[in-house]
Give the backbone structure.
Amino acid sequence: MEARWPGTGSRAWPLVRSGAEGETVAAIQLLLAAHGYRADADAVFGPATTEQVTAYQRDHSLANDGIIGPDTWHALIVNVRAGDRGPVVMAAHRLLTAHGHPVAADGVFGQETTEAVAACQTDRHLVADGIVGPDTWSALVNLA
């Protein structure tokens, strides 16, 4: 990851590119999977991830440079809340756990996840509504 670039409002988004590793990369891979792109959540931004990012960017009329910057983050993130399931929830689980709010990475947004999200939001001085929206995603990917 490199310098952080401002997004909308007070949100900042990290630039993530080939060679990066860690839970933010795993979250990107899971977000890609949620959008129907083939990406293993191995937390390594290698050639396969670069290929999927570039395809996603091309398909969504973004600069297809293979780099996850503010525009790509905005297109990738999806609001998740209690009752939701799938790879996006698993991405939130992995980021929450990596940053001190452990939850089972089972892809199910239940009460435990709602409480972990609210605790993380409180720690980051966000509205503690238990919903992973743009501000919470930004905080989660910037904790890395």
Notes: The longest strand covers residues 4-6. The mean pLDDT is 91.
